[in-house]
Design brief:
With 137 residues, this protein is mainly alpha-helical. The protein is 50% helix and 7% strand. The protein is built from four helices and three strands, in the order ααααβββ. It is rod-shaped and about 95 Å long.
Length: 137
């Protein structure tokens, strides 16, 4: 009893000392909402990072195709594709694990084009699923 009196000055202070279950649930709900907002922002940054990585890989593949053109006088044929340009190395997959497409003739009057089909692996799409073309960069 004496110990309780030392901790709390009066009975009203003792009743207000802890948090109620409702207050704890409200705090947890606020934390969950803030975490979900943060997670959404982080995942959108990762999606953009993969698109940027695909553009970097495609520019490296373009350099290999240009070296092939300098040595052989023409771009690799559609059947040989990127494998001829990067030999003896393997053609890397895009950041989503899909193979790059080599198109000859390419878009916009270019001799060839390199295409990543985005996160969905299918033609078309929007946002993260949009196709990324070397000719668009």
């Amino acid at each position: 009893m004496l110990r309780n009196r030392l901790q709390y000055r009066n009975a009203a202070d003792a009743e207000r000392a802890g948090m109620t279950l409702v207050e704890i649930i409200v705090v947890i709900a606020i934390i969950l909402v803030l975490t979900s907002i943060l997670a959404f922002g982080i995942f959108s940054v990762f999606g953009q990072a993969k698109a940027d990585a695909a553009k970097v890989q495609m520019s490296r593949l373009e350099s290999r195709v240009q070296i092939y053109m300098a040595r052989n006088g023409s771009v690799p044929s559609g059947s040989d594709g990127l494998a001829a340009a990067v030999a003896p190395d393997e053609v890397p997959n895009d950041p989503w694990g899909n193979p790059y497409r080599y198109v000859t003739p390419g878009a916009n009057g270019k001799a060839y084009d390199i295409v990543s089909l985005g996160s969905d692996g299918a033609e078309g799409g929007t946002g993260e699923a949009a196709d990324i073309r070397l000719s668009d960069n």
